[in-house]
Amino acid sequence: MDGVLQLIPAAKVGHIGLYRDPETLQPVEYYCKLPSDVPERELFVLDPMLATGGSANAAIQFIKDRGGVNIRLVSLIAAPEGVDAVHKAHPDVDIYVAAMDEKLNDHAYIVPGLGDAGDRLFGTK
Questions:
Q1: Whole-angstrom distance, CA of residue 41 vs CA of residue 43
Q2: Is 5 exposed, middle or buried (CB count within 10 Å of its CB: 0-12, 13-18, 19+)?
Q3: What pLDDT band is residue 117 in, cutting at 50, 70 and 90?
Q4: Residue 82's closest CA among 51, 119, 106, 42?
Q5: Would residue 66 show up in a list of annotated catalytic residues for this protein?
Q6: How far is it, in rounded angstroms, from Cα 86 to Cα 63?
Q7: Which of 21, 84, 92, 119 is catalytic?
Q8: Which own/partner contact pairs does 93-97 have at CB distance under 8 Å and 24+ positions apart?
Q9: What is the 3-state secondary structure (H, E, C) of the chain?
Q10: Mind listing the pLDDT tens digit for each residue in 104-116?
Q11: pLDDT for 78 beyond 70
Q12: 41 annotated active-site
């Protein structure tokens, strides 16, 4: 977020809080606050790691449900399975990734990956 705000200082910021249920691997929403003018904006969904695509798909759908149409997904690292899932669910959304890793493992973690983004950012593990 900080890097994007340095590039686009006048950007409005929304937040969609999701976590992945460890049993079902499905996204669970805990917070959603978006600018009121979503339908008129160019929207960038920032997701540090695109693994299964579940959280990204849910976030994109939340935005579409609020009238968003000009949406892009930006991730640092991705697995092919996640890119495929987002393309299938939202073919109108362009995806930008800095690196594409090999695959997902049995726990739906990116291989080789970087570890959990939330844990790395907040020091929770």
A1: 6
A2: exposed
A3: low
A4: 51
A5: no
A6: 14
A7: 119
A8: 93/45, 93/60, 95/50, 96/72, 97/50
A9: CHHHHHHCCCCCCCEEEEEECCCCCCEEEEEEECCCCHHHCEEEEECCEECCCHHHHHHHHHHHHCCCCEEEEEEEEECHHHHHHHHHHCCCCEEEEEEECCEECCCCCEECCCCCHHHHHHCCC
A10: 999 888 998 776 6
A11: yes
A12: no
Residues 36 and 7: beta-carbon distance below 8 Å? no
Residues in the chain, overall count: 125
From the candidates 24, 37, 106, 124, which is the catalytic residue?
Answer: 24
Residue-averaged pLDDT of the chain: 90
* Residue 119 annotated to the active site: yes
pLDDT band at 118 (very low <50, low <70, confident <90, very high): low
Place of tokens 């393309």: 87
Residue 101 is among the residues annotated as catalytic for this protein = no
